[in-house]
Design brief:
Elements lengths: L1 E10 L2 E11 L4 E5 L6 H8 L7 E6 L2 E2 L5 H7 L1 E3 L12 H6 L10 H6 L1 H21 L15 H13 L5 E5 L7 H16 L4 E5 L3 H7 L3 E5 L2 E6 L1 H6 L1 H21 L2 H10 L6
Parallel strand pairs: 3-8, 3-9, 6-7, 7-8
Antiparallel strand pairs: 1-2, 1-4, 4-5, 9-10
Helix pairs in contact: 6-7
Protein name: ABC transporter ATP-binding protein
Keywords: ATP-binding, Cell membrane, Membrane, Nucleotide-binding, Transport
GO molecular function, one term: ATP binding
Length: 279
Amino acid sequence: MLELDGLVKAFGGFHAVDGCSLRVNKGEILGLIGPNGAGKTTLFNLIAGALQPTSGTIRFLGEDVTHLPTDALFHKGLVRTFQIPHEFHRLTALENLMMVPPRQPGESLFANWLAWGKVRRAEEEVHRKAEDTLAFLELGHVAHERAGNLSGGQKKLLELGRTMMTDAQLVLLDEPAAGVNRTLLRKLEEKILILNRERGYTFILIEHDMEMIEKLCDPVVCMAEGKVLIQGDFHTVRSDTRVLEAYLGETASAIERNEAEHDPRVEDMREQELPREDL
C-alpha cells in the first residue's frame, strides 16, 4: 500500500530523515517507535505531504505521490491525525464530523439555488453518517457539545471519527495515547482494532506507550537519528540491542538533566534568588 524508498529530509546540514525505506502492507497496523528526535514526526509530515522530501520517493497504492500536497493525498484516502487534536472548538462534535466529507453539493452557491433537493439529500446522508460514527465511537452523548469542551480522550476519538468520515484507506495516527486517560485509551484501542480487522483500515501509529504498541501493532519499526534501525514483531524489536542503546542514550540524557535539576546546590541557589515574601 505504501512504499518509502531512500527518503531524506534535510534542514541545512541536519538530516531529520536520513535514507528511510519501509513498506506498509494493506491491513497492517504498523507501529513507529523511537526516542525523541528520531525523525518519526518528520517522516509523518513527509508521508502526509506537509513537507517535501529532499530526495527519495513515496508511492501510495502504486502511484508516485512524492510531491503531492496534503489535500491531494487526502482525496486519495491518505489522512493523518495529530498529537494535539485539531478540532473546530466552537462547533459541536457532530458538526466537526459533518465538515469533513469533501465536495459536498451544499458548498456550491448555485447548487443551493438550483439543486436544493440534491443538497438536502446529501446533507441528510452526511448527518446520518456523522451520527453513526459518533455512536460507533460511543460519543453520541456529546454530539451537540462544543468540541472545545470535550476531554482529551474524547477529542482523540473525535479525530479518529474524522478519518472515518473520509473513508480513508491509510491513517497516520500521531501519538493517540498522549493526554488520554486509561479508560478512554482502552476504548480508543478497541475502535482502532475494529476499524482494522472489520473495516479494512490500514494504520501507521507513532506512539511512546509500549503497552499500546504491543497490543495493536505488527510489524513495529524503530527509528533513531532519522534512520530505520529495525523492523519486526514487537518482542524482536524490543529486545534488539540497537533499540535498547537508542532508548538508553535518551534515558541517560534525561537522568543527567534530572540530576542537575535536583542538585542540592541548584536548589539552594534557586531559594536564594526568591524574595522572602514569595516563599
